[in-house]
Amino acid sequence: MLHYVKQYRKLKEAFNMVQPDLENGVYKTHLHSKRIVYKEDSEAEQFVSQLIKSDYSNTVKVNVKRSIERVLNWTNNGSNHKYKGGLLLLNRSGDIKVFSFKNQLTKTYFKDCSRFEAFEETINFFSPYFNTTILNIDQKQRTVMEQLINTQPIIERSFDQQIQVVEQVIEQYDQYLSSQHEKFYYINLDYYFDRFSNNSSINGLLSSLKTVVNQEELVPVVPMHSDLHFENMLLKGDELYLIDWEDCSNKIFYYDVLNIMFVEAFIRDDFRLIECYLNGQFDSSLIKLFQSCGLKFDPTCRDVYFYNYSIVRLESEVTLGESNIEDIIKAYQRFIDKFSGMAY
């Protein structure tokens, strides 16, 4: 209960901060899988249902009409706040996103100056290679404006379409990596195992991974999206857009591609993409991806590549310092056990 009280307070603070950008109305809060305040109307509620895919029976209704009306009266008397949204999302880093369904826009307020600068640098770096939804970056206000693309979520599309999206992603990363080849630096996987040296709760999982990972292998490391999965991709016609670049960091070069498959299996218990991967369905595309890095893709090492990815992903999870890290480690062990059974 105390956890939800703290989260509610943080959400209320965020709500008060961006009131000038919110439409008049009655709002609800959601504090479970995501921290959200949303206007009580069909459009906002439909968007929330797609966003969190969970039951709203425990949402708390909050009537903030009076406070909003005071802001609107002030706004109408000379404020330049023209942007009006009906949904607020507070992410885990404390950044605030305000969604305007009327204008099909999203405005993000960055809590931390260094994170904002890093994000701006990230977008400038990746935009020549990938489609993004970014329309404007305001350094003075520390905000980012994006287009809100209304399209069928990829997770609701047919499996054949999902496979095509994965192929499209690999092709785009092939082109990206080709341009970065001279900028690679190399790291051996032993680095990631050393990062766990003071965490006894993970020893069992590490022991099983050490038997299948070549810790001395040098692997190219390059800036990656680092949180790429179907919910962070938008398909509009034939154009694929990647969103939510806030977690961008240096990772092994095939991290983002395998992360798509991992999330489907680990989060949604759908192992079909991994089955396709292990059966060689993506080999022709992965051969080109590896060639972009001056490497040869070895079909007999498909499982090893995935184990390599897993240790890098696990290191990111542990670094975040989540309070339920022991549960996460147990879930990883279950995933590794199931994956190993499929690979052999």
UniProtKB/TrEMBL annotation:
Residues 219-268 form the Aminoglycoside phosphotransferase domain. Signal peptide: none annotated. Gene3D superfamilies: 3.90.1200.10. InterPro entries: Aminoglycoside_PTrfase, Kinase-like_dom_sf. This is Thiamine kinase-like enzyme.
